[in-house]
Amino acid sequence: MRKSSPLGFTLVELLVVIAIIGVLIALLLPAVQQAREAARRMSCTNNLKQIGIAMHNYHDTYKTFPPGCIGSSTAVNPPSGPQMWGWPVFILPQIEQSALHDVLNPNKRRLVDLLNNASQRDIVQQAIEAYRCPSDRTKDTVKGTPQTFDFNGTAAVGTNYFGGTLNYLGVGAFASLDLDDRPSGPLFRNSETGFQDMVDGASNTFLVGERDFDCSSGVWAGVRNDGGPGPRGINYVTGRVSIPLNFKTKPKGNNGCNEAFSSSHPGGAMFLFGDGSVKFISENISFNNSNATVGDNVNAVNGNFNMNNLGIYQRFGLMNDGQVVSLE
Asked: Which keywords describe this protein according to UniProt (predicted)?
């Protein structure tokens, strides 16, 4: 006569039940993770929509979008400069951060001046949830990212001083992130872009896109070197479309993804368009630089360049290339 367990189950039956529970958990876990990612992606979309509304409200007031970053020099190829404000600072009042905007006082002083004020400088390390994608793993500051964007410069705050995280970067240019490149995106150094400059149509022009931890994210307060087009320069707040979306194999140096767009969302990234719409762009979108030179501090167009051959990704990143574009 066989013995049963105190609960009336044999050992084999208990093992079968445990195995079934394990299988159910294995089946449910991916679904739970997908549901969580869907919620995070919706939150990210809402962040970008709020940034879009803020951009439009800013445009209504000033007749332009905010500058990609403030430049201390008007030269086409500017020399190294001090730390200066980036576009996210100027729309703080439009995202219900008026108190922070007032403390920063960007219309009356430069970022370098704030960083020289030891009693106030740490405010630029503040986390602003509206500027952070919930799917990204970057901490409150960009410390620890693959190419850490420290703030040490004219204001000597040290190489261990980092700004608050920005996951939403302005679309600045096709190739080099500087004024000498044409055609360009809407947010670049000292830009004064308005809807009238989006000759391809606001619904066909990227305004802001994502960048995640793997590509060093960004810094909402501004740039370390306002004259720098690449690493440690304006790429703190803007990016370019000559590097593939979600290209994460080279996060450091020129032509690295720390000048591009990327996300922690599977398969692509969210982009805000000039008309205020937000769309998920697949990392498999048509990509073609048409033989253009895409390094730093060089002209964006070489002798073999043919704008008609640009990929859809590049066309969305240019506001005045005159090319028909569609996601269909």
From this structure: Membrane, Transmembrane, Transmembrane helix
DSSP code of 81? -
Percent of the chain predicted with pLDDT > 90 = 59
Chain centroid to CA 166: how far? 7
pLDDT digits (tens, 9 = 90+) for 226-260: 887 666 788 999 999 989 999 887 655 556 889 99
Give the Cβ contact number of residue 163 at 10 Å.
Answer: 29
Distances (CA, A) of 194 to 182, 271, 272, 319: 16, 18, 15, 11
| pTM across the whole model | 0.86
In contact, 226 and 233? CB cutoff 8 Å? yes
What pLDDT does residue 295 have? 54
Low-confidence winner among 34-38, 61-65, 104-108 (lowest mean pLDDT): 34-38
Closest alpha carbon to 185 in 314, 87, 78:
314
Phi, psi of 84 (to 5 degrees): -140, 160
Residue 62, token pair as written in the block: 């000033």
Which residues 6+ apart lie within 8 Å of 99 measured at CB? none
Q: CA nearest 54: which of 173, 158, 168, 212? A: 168
Which 3 state secondary structure label does DSSP give 184? Answer: strand
Tokens linked to 269 = 């990234």
